[in-house]
Amino acid sequence: MSMKPFPQQTVLVTGASRGIGAAIAERFAREGMNIVVHYRNSHEEANEVARRCLELGANVVTATADLRSKEQLMRMRDKLEKHGMMPEILVNNAGIAHYGLFSEVSEDDWDHIMSVNLKGTFLCTQMFMEEMVRRKYGRIINVSSVWGITGASCEVVYSTAKGGVNAMTKALAKELGPSGITVNAVAPGVVQTEMMDQFNEEEKAAIENEIPAGRFAQPDEIAALVYFLALPESGYITGQIISPNGGWFT
């Protein structure tokens, strides 16, 4: 087990400048933990999240990197080492969506979606798991999607990428289990974030009517599940794909 008490551990949240990632960072910040707010381009938004985390009592560092670049990830790792903030908890949240007919998906589209959603998760996990193995303790939590479980029409590339994240989660859990590291994925249904802005009110209402809970999830609800999986008491939960989707898919 980690020698650090849980509130003294460090959490790295990728794609934490907005939406689910910001909510996750702030949930851990409420416990006064060490928070790494990762972003790629959204400097001002990341600083605002960091400010809120500081107000909640956390120790905070912001870090920028293109997760598709091993070189940039190495620079981020060096920065965290210098700050004494190598993570016990890694939340791979960064990702992008894609909507459109499969017949209209270009090779560039495919490469871009796979690179951000799947390669980025691979590289970031590989970069930070070595220290967890050395400590014989760690939590890796991947933010996936319900579409990675069920698939979605007109979201084939995104579904494929998130399905890959789910498969990686299950396999890596078996590989890292003997080292005291859990690996799980949270696969939300519809969450009220900026990603829903592309839908009009009529379309949103139609989707809500399909969900037994009758509403979209709030980012804080997803963050609560991520927090639970990070707890020391959750050490027997690993290799699981947990989908908070309001009963939409069971």
From TrEMBL:
Gene Ontology molecular function terms on file: translation elongation factor activity
Entry annotated with the keyword Zinc-finger: no
Per the record, the domain of life is Bacteria
Sorted UniProt keywords: Elongation factor, Protein biosynthesis
Extract the NCBIfam families matched here: EF_P_mod_YmfI, PRK07231.1, PRK12826.1-2
Similarity-based family:
Belongs to the short-chain dehydrogenases/reductases (SDR) family.
Name by which UniProt lists this protein: Elongation factor P 5-aminopentanone reductase
Tell me what organism the protein belongs to. Paenibacillus residui
Q: Which gene encodes it?
A: ymfI
